[in-house]
Amino acid sequence: MRKAVCGNLISAVFIENAGDTVFDGRLHWHENEQLMVILSGLCTIVVDGKEIEATPGDLVFVPSGARHGVVACGPEGCKLLRDFRARATRSVARVGRKAGDAF
Predict the structure, then answer these.
(1) Distance in angstroms (rounded) separating the CA atoms of residues 14 and 38
(2) What residue spans of 37-86 are helical by DSSP H?
(3) Cα(82)–Cα(101) distance, rounded to whole angstroms?
(4) How many CA atoms lie within 13 A of 13 on its CB side?
(5) 55 phi and psi, to 5 degrees?
(6) Contact present, 68 and 46 (Cβ < 8 Å)
(7) Rounded Cα–Cα distance for residues 45 and 69 (Å)
(8) 39: Cβ–Cβ under 8 A, 6 or more apart, which residues?
(9) Of 1, 16, 5, whose CA–CA distance to 102 is shortest?
(10) Three-state SS for 35?
(11) What is the pLDDT at residue 7?
(12) 3-class SS at 90?
């Protein structure tokens, strides 16, 4: 499940993944910096080749241009909040949403 809100200068996405979810391992990148806050559960995040085992309360910073992605979740699933600054709203607009749209 994903819930997002986008403004002109910031966007945030709440993500909830089911337990033992394993993703395809494909990483992505974007120009903006990103911050992930782990709210509950365990998740494995890769940032520029470094694997991070993130737990509740962890803050994971993704630099501009870094290849990254969540690749797996623990048995109880995971909830996290992703925060983007200014440039993310342009990325969202490119896929058919305007600043201020919730999805």
Answers:
(1) 10
(2) none
(3) 16
(4) 15
(5) -125, 165
(6) yes
(7) 6
(8) 56, 78, 79, 80, 81
(9) 5
(10) strand
(11) 86
(12) helix
